Amino acid sequence: MHELDKLFKSAKKSYDAENNPLDALLKISKHCLKKLSNETTTRRQGNIGTKQYWVYESGDGISRPYLKSLFISSESNFTRRWKLLIANINADGHKIDSTENEIDAVLYTASMAFSICYDIWKSTSRKTPGTYLEVLLGSIMGKILSDYQRTKHIPLPIESQDENDESVSTDIVFEKTNDNGEIFGLVIPVKITTRERIVQPFAHQRILDSVFGFNRFHSILICISEMQLDKKNNKVNEICVPGTVRLFQKYLSILSGIYYLDPPTRYLQKDVTDIIKVGSVGKMLNAILPEIL
Amino acid sequence: MHELDKLFKSAKKSYDAENNPLDALLKISKHCLKKLSNETTTRRQGNIGTKQYWVYESGDGISRPYLKSLFISSESNFTRRWKLLIANINADGHKIDSTENEIDAVLYTASMAFSICYDIWKSTSRKTPGTYLEVLLGSIMGKILSDYQRTKHIPLPIESQDENDESVSTDIVFEKTNDNGEIFGLVIPVKITTRERIVQPFAHQRILDSVFGFNRFHSILICISEMQLDKKNNKVNEICVPGTVRLFQKYLSILSGIYYLDPPTRYLQKDVTDIIKVGSVGKMLNAILPEIL
Fold it and tell me: What is the DSSP string of A12-45?
């Protein structure tokens, strides 16, 4: 894991210096897939409906569950498809010209392969997989939105001299300045799963609405899935809170959408989608994003 | 710990059946203080300014840090002062007629003695101390607000027939119905420390404002402290986010106040208190509560 740590630190450093380190990210994925293929076994952990979830194991280490049908376990296969995906980035159109499922499969594999390695061999570094997901999506979207400025903070207008500087901070912001010198853009909280943190993106959007008025900033929440390993009962759980999501969207603020690499079936049902747009990251990146901008 | 578990389960059951099990809570505190006095040692862990924080230890078990000057370690002393506090509850005046510091000391000891026992002897039950704090404060305030109905949910008006029932759920709600049949009252999120969950009370208040209009429900956040044990560096930390609190109060919603049994010094400084009321639980219960109602 020392090698993987080193690779990630280097990619993160480049990302923080406002680059989109796609080559470094490919190197990381290849390293993870090779390590998984050489040093682990896999087995089926459980189903959610017809979706099969498997886990990787090595010694005492067990990974989070992954959706077998979406995960590209072969390093060479993944490398080819990653390169094709990058080649299909259409910066003028603000989208990726690959199919929805292809985008989901490649990004799901890249993020999950990394998380799985940390689960098995460095489970104490609990925050690293989330940071990696942020770097991955920030870099891919940085290529797609190359005419935007990527940042993490939206400074709020200072009301008086005494006041301390205030800002809304989130995982990824893509912003531009309009002819009036006003900043506008896209706010992208990125979570592996949401749990009780689902409130944060709604609260942030509400604050931005309060400060800047509606229509200056739009939030899209991006997640991997809502899957959880249930070790005790040897199965998998999908934790959804449709009532809470509806409540927040109706009464707290309006998110432009919630997009998953592996969307929970529950959130695709009518009582949720009548209130809030929910879909796959693939669909967002190949069709919806240009409409939001 | 089997005995303490049993005592707590019984108190919780009575609380959930809409009672205020004050005798059972005293029994729990006595049990904890006796156990701590017989089976542990104590030592100073660190200071925050002039405030000394100590820990209890037993074998490999170490407790969260507690404020030495506020903690009543003697079982007999605590019992006498608890009984006096209960006798001083003034239900007509909606307050407790004890001094601010006396209220803080008794409630701080009751909540911390329980948490400390769980830290040392049952650290896997991570949620139990929070539940206990809820039962403790809900019972004490239930006696003070005996003309209110205690609940955990505020049902939202149903807009159409298709819609599922929706409600805002929090730790403690005290509600009444006015002459127009409208529910109003006090929403009381209770947290041991806030961390990233500080957003929740503001979000809930915002939803209540959106649904019911302003002035129907008021939120007060009650916490023990913002202290954290720093095992690695063998010291104590006080984690405060004054910028975030100011931001939420200004742009998300307005809390009636944040009250701590052990208030962090940082939150008592002018740049925070100019924006939001922060104080001790003792002050809230002996002076401020009647004004909020």
Answer: HHHHHTT---HHHHHHHHHHHHHHHHHH-EEEEE
pTM across the whole model: 0.91
- By C-alpha distance, which of A149, A106, A139 is closest to A281? A106
- Residue in chain A nearest B158 by alpha carbon: A247
Give the lowest-confidence range in A159-168, B134-143, B239-248.
A159-168
Residue B241: closest CA among chain A residues belongs to which residue?
A166
Encode B140-162 in three state secondary structure: HHHHHCCCCEEEEEEECCCCCCC
- pLDDT value for A161: 47
The predicted-structure confidence for A226-277, as pLDDT tens digits, reads as follows: 999 998 888 999 999 999 999 999 999 999 999 999 999 999 999 999 999 9
Phi, psi at B219, each rounded to 5°: -105, 135
Is the CB of residue B194 less than 8 Å from the CB of residue B135? no
Contacts with A166 from chain B: Cβ below 8 Å: 243, 246-247
Q: Is A17 buried (19+), middle (13-18) or exposed (0-12) by CB count in 10 A? A: exposed
Both tokens of A140, joined, read: 């891919």
Q: Cβ A207–B252 below 8 Å, yes or no?
A: yes
Residue B189 clears pLDDT 80, i.e. is over it: yes
**CB atoms closer than 10 angstroms to residue B64:** 23
Q: What is the mean pLDDT of the segment spanning A172-197?
A: 94
Distances (CA, A) of A20 to A134, A141, B292: 12, 9, 52
Which residues of chain A lie closer than 8 angstroms to B199, CB-CB?
199-200, 203
The token pair that represents B130 in the structure block: 């929070």
Task: Tell the burial category of A232 from Cβ atoms under 10 Å away from its Cβ (0-12, 13-18, 19+).
Answer: exposed
What's phi and psi for A33, nearest 5 deg? -65, -40
C-alpha atoms less than 13 angstroms from C-alpha of A260 in its C-beta half-sphere: 20
Phi, psi values for residue A159, rounded to 5°: -85, -35
Quote the DSSP letter at residue B68: G
Nearest beta carbon to residue B203 from set A166, A243, A252? A252
pLDDT band of residue B161 (cuts 50, 70, 90) is: very low
Q: Hey, are the CB atoms on A203 and B207 less than 8 Å from each other?
A: no
The pLDDT, as a whole number, for residue B231 is: 86
Q: What is the 3-state secondary structure (H, E, C) of B217-242?
A: EEEEEEECCCEEEECCCCEEEECCCH
Type and span of the H or E element at A9: helix A2-16
What is the reported pLDDT for A202?
A: 97
Type and span of the H or E element at A203 = helix A199-212
Q: What is the pLDDT of residues B243-267, one digit of tens each?
A: 999 999 999 999 999 999 999 999 9
Size of interface A-B (CB pairs under 8 A): 55
Residues of chain A positioned with their CB less than 8 A from the CB of B166: 243, 246-247
**Helix (H/G/I), strand (E/B), else coil: A280:** strand
Chain A interface residues (partner B, CB cutoff 8 A): 156, 164, 166, 168, 196-197, 199-200, 202-203, 206-207, 210-211, 243, 246-248, 251-252, 271
